[in-house]
Amino acid sequence: MESSRPQVIFFDAVGTLFGIKGSVGQIYAAIAQQYGVEVAPQTIDWAFGPAFRAAGNPAFPDVDPSELAAREYTWWRDVAIATFNQADVLPQFADFEAFFDTLFHHFATATPWDLYDDTISTLSQIRDAGITLGVISNFDSRLYKVLEALSLSDFFRSITISTEVGVAKPDVQIFQVALQQHNCVPSQAWHIGDSLEEDYRAATTAGLRGIWLQR
């Protein structure tokens, strides 16, 4: 049994450790209302998916580290513009830039996130068993603030984020980068996440034990 223990267990972030409170549409619509724009949350939910997928993976391999924050901001701004354009309310904003700045920084706080009931207990049990923990996420650098706000930061020895390493799941390279931080071979690591493709299958392809968490 002892020989089967992993050296490291990695977790995905959004959808695995915590999720959106309500829906993206509810949050976007509520903040848009503060800027005088009325739109149904369901309309935003309908428009957001295609806009998000069309943007491609949030990974910027050729960006200088000093420019990364601005690139992340622009990536999400483009998604927001496409979402509200598809929802046919973009012209209603008197100051879209001010709206988006509020929206972007809102998602760096604990407010829009729902910490799953089993997250703290699960991480505590693994840590108490002497197994190292890490995060592998297709998020951006706001993840550090979110993990801190949700009191999760201290659990993790490493945090590997697609925008920072220039490659996103399901590419096996992001798993390789994460493993290198622990001097760990793939067979001695697990990865747990809610996406069948980006977490379970991608981790398995990279040589880790992939575990699909179905929330």
UniProtKB/TrEMBL annotation:
The keyword Aminoacyl-tRNA synthetase does not apply. Keywords: Hydrolase. One of its GO terms (molecular function) is hydrolase activity. SUPFAM superfamilies: HAD-like (SSF56784). The keyword Hydrolase applies. It comes from the Bacteria. Pfam families: Hydrolase (PF00702). NCBIfam families: DREG-2, HAD-SF-IA-v1. This is HAD family hydrolase.
